[in-house]
Design a protein that fits this description.
- With 307 residues, the chain is an alpha/beta fold.
- The chain has one domain (17-303): Alpha/Beta hydrolase fold, catalytic domain (Rossmann fold, 3-Layer(aba) Sandwich), CATH 3.40.50.1820.
- 33% of the residues lie in helices and 20% in strands.
- The chain has 10 helices and 9 strands.
- A 9-stranded mixed sheet has the order 1-2-3-5-4-6-7-8-9, sandwiched between helices.
- Strand 6 (158-168), helix 4 (170-181) and strand 7 form a beta-alpha-beta unit.
- The N and C termini lie far apart (47 Å).
- 50% of the residues are buried.
Length: 307
């Protein structure tokens, strides 16, 4: 069946959405970031310097990351934040550094090296604390990603006027929320965005991770309305109208993990006047990645460029 490009997800943005997130970001801003950025000689190369990063996020959770920069450069570097998928371990972003970026690969809570204080597991993250917007796992998870922008802004070698974010799947969803909430982001590239149209996705597909929500509802049949209300605060579609920077989104029309219908619904709600959707027929959850990677490179070069 051909996905409907005019599909409208059932999510309704809460009336107090903005005030809820303003309170959360205010709380985050009051926490000392306390950055540790230490050169890792073992993982560095002659051309690329790799740093092991730690910083404080919401609830004083200590979050980790990998930071890579060219060993030799002149002037300020464009900054890039790479955000991870649901199950994948965040990579060391050497390839982005080779392209001339100062790149942070952030490991939000529950990921490798960020598990000592919070570890719901995989599966587990998607439904942890899901009956309360103030305890839901992604409240802190989103903040961990947003705080990565603060890390880049703190770096002397990074041009604060040239910062972008990119990722696929969960990374695509985090790209959406980060671009929405951090005005310092000048460009964003979101692949196969997850965390968008949650309640529609659990009807459109029965693959994991979304199936975690169906598992939860089967075990807690009376909780559906509460779950729906909570997720409306975290749905990428609720954030989308806040995005003003240039953005590209790519989807696979045969994606059975993040249904393309939710990708269309998200794209249609994005507030930026400079947005473009790439649809890949015959592609699943990789969403044409091997074709699209060149497009992402060209897009970032166009909007960040080299000094």
């Amino acid at each position: 069946m051909v996905p409907d490009p005019n599909y409208i997800c059932s999510v309704e943005k809460p009336e107090d959405f903005d005030s809820f997130w303003e309170d959360v970001t205010k709380t985050l801003g009051n926490i000392d970031i306390d950055i540790s950025c230490v050169l890792d000689d073992f993982r560095s190369t002659e051309d690329i310097s790799v740093y092991e990063v730690f910083f404080n996020s919401l609830d004083n959770i200590r979050v980790s990351g990998w930071y890579a920069v060219p060993s030799k450069y002149s002037g300020k570097l464009p900054g890039l934040m790479l955000v991870p998928g649901y199950q994948s371990d965040p990579p060391i972003p050497r390839e982005w550094a080779k392209k001339g970026y100062a790149c942070l690969s952030v490991n939000p809570r529950g990921k490798v090296r960020s598990r000592s204080q919070f570890d719901p597991g995989y599966p587990g993250l998607l439904t942890y604390g899901i009956v309360d917007r103030n305890t839901y796992s992604y409240r802190g998870f989103y903040c961990d990603a947003w705080r990565g922008i603060d890390f880049l802004l703190d770096r002397d070698e990074v041009d604060s006027e040239r910062i972008a974010v990119t990722g696929s799947s969960q990374g695509g969803g985090l790209t959406i929320t980060t671009a929405a909430m951090r005005k310092e982001v000048k460009a964003a590239a979101a692949g196969a965005p997850y965390l968008c149209g949650y309640m529609d996705a659990i009807e459109l597909t029965h693959t994991y991770p979304y199936e975690e929500i169906n598992d939860y509802l089967r075990s807690n049949p009376g909780s559906r309305k509460t779950v729906e209300d909570t997720l409306s605060y975290f749905d990428g579609i609720s954030f989308a109208d806040r995005i003003k920077c240039p953005i590209i989104v790519n989807i696979g029309l045969q994606d059975n993990v993040c249904p393309p219908e939710t990708g269309y619904a998200l794209f249609n709600q994005i507030g930026s006047k400079n947005k473009k959707l790439y649809e890949y027929d015959g592609h699943g959850h990789e969403a044409g990645r091997y074709i699209h990677s060149r497009i992402v490179d060209e897009f970032l070069e166009e909007h960040l460029g080299q000094e």
